[in-house]
């Protein structure tokens, strides 16, 4: 049986790594959007006053 | 989708993906000729399946948009392409890594590899087309039509290993005498394979629901900006 364990590790590094990077980018974007909403809501409240 | 349901879906996906990973590494037997690298096969095919499913969803939402003019279908179609591209990329990279010790090359212009490259380029062009159009209605209409026509590349990729001679193994229906490559699986391998396909389908639904929620949040920010500017 050939020793192909290193390729298995490399394969799964990409299989798990790419979605994790993708989801990580969502997390950063969500945090930024939450901050934006907070700022925009406070601006909106100030305008109403 | 309500937050509670989304959290439940996230937990279900996490659980099912952990089980699928456990099956791949601890339940499925090691293939005799290829060794450990054959375990890449389970998630490699599942990623390709998600690519095809995601692009099929874009086809369906394209038809629904053209019938109803509801921008929600356009948004789902676009987000599905985004997810489909991520999984197609995983499919190509994992396949290339699997090929290196088995075919002795990272890449070869085999019919399957060529058609899957065309498939990815077709959907990269879909994203580029969307970004080049500013009018939302025009963008949605063009994207819907493109998503319907572009789907031709999915069955072309799937059937490429039956239409042309190829070194790529035929997994689904490999008992077909017309099939060029062979992929014989033990019952444990077959169970792991089917479980991985189901797990990735749940993962796709979960990612789409979360991505949709993020996009709705982005739209809310845009609406708030407009509200402040127009006040």
Textual characterization of the structure:
- The complex is a heterodimer of chains A (49) and B (231).
- Chain A is mainly α and 49 residues long.
- In chain A, 90% of the residues lie in helices and 0% in strands.
- The longest helix of chain A has 44 residues.
- The N and C termini of chain A lie far apart (76 Å).
- Chain B has one domain.
- Chain B contains 7 helices and no strands.
- With 231 residues, chain B is mainly α.
- In chain B, 37% of the residues are buried.
- Chain B is globular, with a radius of gyration of 20 Å.
- The chains are: A mainly alpha (49), B mainly alpha (231).
- At the A-B interface, helix 1 of A face helix 2, helix 3 and helix 7 of B.
In short:
The complex is a heterodimer of chains A (49) and B (231). With 49 residues, chain A is an all-alpha fold.
